[in-house]
Design the sequence.
């Protein structure tokens, strides 16, 4: 098969050997050649020693999901040779470090196996840092095999290592070792290779955690509280870096932000909620286990109506699960977090661009509705580099602080009652501490009436929780609307959310090419807008695609819209790996043919 700018490769190494730098350089080089590219890092939860893989998909059409097949595997870890050989598609290639022999029994007649003695070349050439430099050597070989822009890659090496002449010289030598060996000993280029395009202008490479952190800065967040947990830790690290650059007073040198590492996730939630009560825009970032620990404080914030933003970068569960694998298994946990009748606003970004935009939206919604708001990312979005449109910002933006009464507004009010619904939208006005005695009230998580007074009276209690339900209904009209991709005459509907979007959109293209008429709805937020139920009613057959075992999105759709659960066919993938279009196409085709999905 000959394919230009349309192939995928997988690099198999060992965690902790420094391969991430070389892999990132290769992906950046492809991007700078104007070619759409995306990378998926599949790594273990230990610090060092276990197998790790990095997948790079080159797609001239701009597809971002995991590739349907692997054309080239770079096998640098003898412990995974058998798995790596089996991964290569028929007709594909395997490149391995021939310094360590490969068992003849692993050979396949339907693939081409190429050997380069990267380890031996580095041992013969360098006295130190041989493991690190082997990574640059295989980068050189790949540059030759894939016909990468040589001057561009060499320039990138200078940018990365140019501050230290000895380090730059060593990396340049290692790169040339791999490049020259491949050029003289191997078939270059391979049938699938790179050719300059002009398809990345106006785009950037960024991960979702960095984008969320940047969105928090632009939204005006000044307080971050957290407890380290994979895969959300880098979100707060990025927020800290942005604050150190942009939230320090130029004259005094004083920080205009507060970041606290708490003793656990429950404390982190409490700090964020306390800061929100004081009027600051505050957040915490965590993953599923942290959400479990935060439940008590989340319920308190919901009932006392205090704004705070929670970034949940989802991973595999239950319990510790697989910390470095992706999933969408916290959907119901976020939507109905805490005991009692609770319902929360949840936003579902599909990529880092939406992580940035929805982070800002989350803070506005939290203030407007005086409630916890969740941004439901996942490991694939949060920790992998994605090619997305350059982030845009409107300088006319002003934060939506909602119904906050200052001293002047309080003067116009005969009597302030904290939980009184004046406008009929379920949202009561609030005050901030220190505004004055007229605006003071007691914050309590126990039963209270509309005046914030303690009560165990049934009618007074019900009045408050019924108003909270009205507020949720109002929120359903204010959250981001679903995204649609419709086709005339479609009788098949596909529903999905979040990180599944890339794979599902690619699957829709393939299904349409096969003659199926398919509509797509991507849900962006909970509570569900009325358009969600309308979409479900418009299709005789609806598939719900999500990454968890128990079809949580399908269950939520049935609960909230009243749509028959059995009328929605689940397509589930909970392997911990990012979804592929192949999985979706196969499941839809199987059902339509009458087989079991």
Sequence:
């Amino acid at each position: 098969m000959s394919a230009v700018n349309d192939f995928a490769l997988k690099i198999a190494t060992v965690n902790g050997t420094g391969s991430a730098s070389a892999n990132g350089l290769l992906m950046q080089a492809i991007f700078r050649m104007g070619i759409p590219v995306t990378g998926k890092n599949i790594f273990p939860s230990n610090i060092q020693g276990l197998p790790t893989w990095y997948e790079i998909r080159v797609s001239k059409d701009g597809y971002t999901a995991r590739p349907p097949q692997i054309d080239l595997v770079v096998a640098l870890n003898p412990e995974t040779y058998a798995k790596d050989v089996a991964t290569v598609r028929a007709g594909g290639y395997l490149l391995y470090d021939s310094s360590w022999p490969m068992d003849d029994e692993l050979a396949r007649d339907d693939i081409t196996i190429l050997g380069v003695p990267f380890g031996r070349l580095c041992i013969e050439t360098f006295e130190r840092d041989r493991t690190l430099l082997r990574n640059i050597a295989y980068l050189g070989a790949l540059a030759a095999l894939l016909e990468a822009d040589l001057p561009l890659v060499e320039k990138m090496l200078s940018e990365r290592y140019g501050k230290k002449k000895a380090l730059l010289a060593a990396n340049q030598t290692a790169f040339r070792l791999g490049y020259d060996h491949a050029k003289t000993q191997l078939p270059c280029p391979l049938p699938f290779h790179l050719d300059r395009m002009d398809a990345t202008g106006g785009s950037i490479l960024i991960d979702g955690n960095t984008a969320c952190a940047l969105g928090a800065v632009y939204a005006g967040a000044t307080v971050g509280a957290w407890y380290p947990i994979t895969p959300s830790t880098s979100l707060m690290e990025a927020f800290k870096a942005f604050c150190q650059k942009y939230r320090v007073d130029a004259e005094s040198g004083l920080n205009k932000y507060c970041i606290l590492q708490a003793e656990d996730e429950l404390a982190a939630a409490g700090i964020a909620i306390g800061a929100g009560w004081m009027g600051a825009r505050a957040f915490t970032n965590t993953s599923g286990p942290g959400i479990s620990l935060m439940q008590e404080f989340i319920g308190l914030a919901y009932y006392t109506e205090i704004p705070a933003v929670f970034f949940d970068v989802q991973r595999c569960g239950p319990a510790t699960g697989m910390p470095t694998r992706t999933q969408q298994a916290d959907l119901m946990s976020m939507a109905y977090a805490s005991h009692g009748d609770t319902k929360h606003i949840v936003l579902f970004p599909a990529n880092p661009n939406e992580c940035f935009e929805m982070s800002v939206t989350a803070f506005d919604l939290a203030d407007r509705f005086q409630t916890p708001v969740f941004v439901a990312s996942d490991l694939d979005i949060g920790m992998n580099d994605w090619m997305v449109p350059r982030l845009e910002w409107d300088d006319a933006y002003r934060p939506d602080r909602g119904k906050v009464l200052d001293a002047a507004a309080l003067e116009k009010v005969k009597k302030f009652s904290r939980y009184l619904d004046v406008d009929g939208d379920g949202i009561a006005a609030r005050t901030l501490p220190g505004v004055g005695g007229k605006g003071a009230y007691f914050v309590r998580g126990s039963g209270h009436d509309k005046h914030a007074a303690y009560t165990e009276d049934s009618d007074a209690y019900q009045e408050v929780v019924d108003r909270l339900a009205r507020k949720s209904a109002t929120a359903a009209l204010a959250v981001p609307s679903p995204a649609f991709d419709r086709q005339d005459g479609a009788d098949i509907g596909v529903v999905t959310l979040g990180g599944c979007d890339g794979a599902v959109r690619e699957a829709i293209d393939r299904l349409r090419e096969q003659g199926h008429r398919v509509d797509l709805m991507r849900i962006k937020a909970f509570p569900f807008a009325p358009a969600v139920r309308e979409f479900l009613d418009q299709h005789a057959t609806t598939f719900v695609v999500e990454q968890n075992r128990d079809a949580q999105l399908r269950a939520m759709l049935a609960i909230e819209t009243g749509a028959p659960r059995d009328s929605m066919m689940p397509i589930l993938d909970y392997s911990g790996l990012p979804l592929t279009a192949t999985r979706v196409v196969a499941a839809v085709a199987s059902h339509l043919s009458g087989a079991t999905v």
Remarks:
- DSSP finds 19 helices and 22 strands in the chain.
- Residues 218 and 396 are 12 Å apart (CA to CA).
- The longest strand covers residues 88-97.
